[in-house]
Fold:
Amino acid sequence: MTDATLGSLLGSAPPQMAQADLAALVAQHYGLRGPLRALTSERDLNLHLATPEQGYVIKLANPAEPAEVTDFQTRALLHLQAAGLPVPRLIRSLDGQTQVPTPQGILRVLTYLEGTPQHLTPRSDAQAADLARMAARLALGLQGFSHPAADYVLQWDLKQAAALQPLLPAIADPALRDLAAATLARYNADIAPALPDLRWQVVHNDLNPHNVLCAPDAPDRIAGVLDFGDMVRTPLICDVAIAAAYQLDPRAPLHSLTTFARAYHAVLPLTATERALLPDLAATRMLTTIAITSARAARYPENAAYILRNFAAARVGLIALAELDRSSVLKELEQL
Structure:
């Protein structure tokens, strides 16, 4: 597998810097001091900094990420902060800058949001519905936001799914590899041709349970959203499908899919075409997770546990969706 297969960003290891050196940079540019601890990340170097007043996230961007893409994420966060949504707040440097360039990557500081990561909480229909409403609120908050880098190519973007083909051999299980190939063939034949005529906008693009915080005393309530590193401009329904894919219960796939879609639709109505594409796009997200994580875990075995954290759920979810009667799914979604 070559870097071209994953793209330069997904094909690059996270940046490296000694914690003492990073702490010195943060103190110099932000005036913040405190103990650091490592946070997990797919592509960047992320650390938590604790001060007596509050916690912060120190982010050192992957040097393979173009500076304009980092700026895109920064401007989107500022836009959402102004809309009052529960996202990390960007901290400006002592001289008023939103980010600080370093030889190892662009340095940014965000507030640390408190809450319980969704993947550590009990799942429920009420929780999935509240996440759907939050996803819709985020999409509404990003309506009208634009940036020159919003159309950059990222393999996690569902409109790029055709490029997953070279990654399929990395899927070790032959039966799963065959199902992934069939899912991709359906995407290429029936889904991709419909995407250009849909609603497009900048979206979060990665509402997985590790990026969603629940209220500690009320796990059915979504308290915050993290990690805007996969934002792109893409069809709106792709963002819906990504979030829905992670809420799908393989024991009740139709019920969980329609529960999520109904709650989203109540806040931000979906067109008939968007609803009809939702199941296949959710399957495409599961395929994307399986293909990319299989390839990246093989390349970066030292980070495999983090890279593969969503693999098992994607596998059982893709199998569960494939076993559903398509006409029954579309009928339910028509009636939202």
Observations:
- The chain has a mean pLDDT of 94.
